Amino acid sequence: MVVDMTMKNITYFDNAATTYPKPQCVISAMNSCMKNYCANPGRSGHRLAILSEEAVYQARRRITDFFHGKNPLKTVFVKNATEGLNMVIGTLAAMKGHVIYTSYEHNSVIRPIWRYSQSGDLSYDICLPDVTGCIDPRDIESLIRKDTLAVIVSLASNITGYILPIKEIGRICKEHRLFFIVDVSQGAGTIQPDMIENDIHVIVGTGHKDLYGPQGTGFVCAEGFELIPILYGGTGTESMSPNPANVSPDILEAGTQNLPGIVGLAQGAAFIEELGAIKIQKHKKALIKRMSDGLKSIKGITSYIPEDNCGIVAFDVTGLDSQETVHLLSTQYGICARGGFHCSPNLHRYLKTDQTGLIRFSFGIFNKIKEVDHSLNALEFIAKRLV
Cα separation of 209 and 27, whole Å? Predict the structure, then answer.
């Protein structure tokens, strides 16, 4: 059976990879930019360039205010969270020292740290979850050394949705005078962390997930942490010198910016603020409960669903590889989900799912209870075929 994969017949549960559909206000803002003022910001003095520059600045303010940062000029736009994390970790490597991260981190943290460990610029320790699957901040504290520079954590897991205790971790970092760096790619629009309240020095995130913006957008909000560029070129300032002016954010944003994307990112954040994180949390909790309750009654399915959850249900079907399961869900039932290892190998090793991976259903504000019920019916049918 081949499913009609038109928009009306799709159940989209892959929001942790990219939220879909995008809010109409995001689409309209990007269209308006491209139709009415899409010139090159910071490069010219004519009217359209000035309008473009103003749009970028307003986006900086929007993202800075969203996380309760202090200075919009310390918010840098990048093409994704991976680029932003590479910039931050590269800055730490230039300081030389030790960093701590957790088993919940993504390869965008793991791989650059490993690379710098090979050159001797960074050493690291990984904080493992406790027996309940949670990160105990005291375990992070036990790993601190004299040469520790920073603790890097995700706001939430991109596999299970588990929300990490950033307030407690931030307090420990403050007591030990360490940089606290939080990757908010998962959960930013559901939890909306406060930089000041949580003692966060750097927030790194992407626009295309919980902020409902477009792909190709990301940001770094750095307070009290001077970033080192990873890209050099034209900035529109000091153009006659081979040495770029050390002015933030210009020095960190060489080349032409993704203006329509930045506008869409800002509008996505505005959409979240208008809707309210509490409403989004309530909606996701209802979907998770319905899904969790339903999975318990299906023989052959094991679920991994923490109570503190940003909107993800992870599970496996006994006897089926996770990729095979999501293929069946897509081709036979029109359900878009993700299988595999989700770029987070250490957590799979902890969960002992490092051979078959996990199926991930990730919910967004546009999902409905009836879609959960449709998926439960599909999974029940798939599981019964294996008995």
Answer: 15
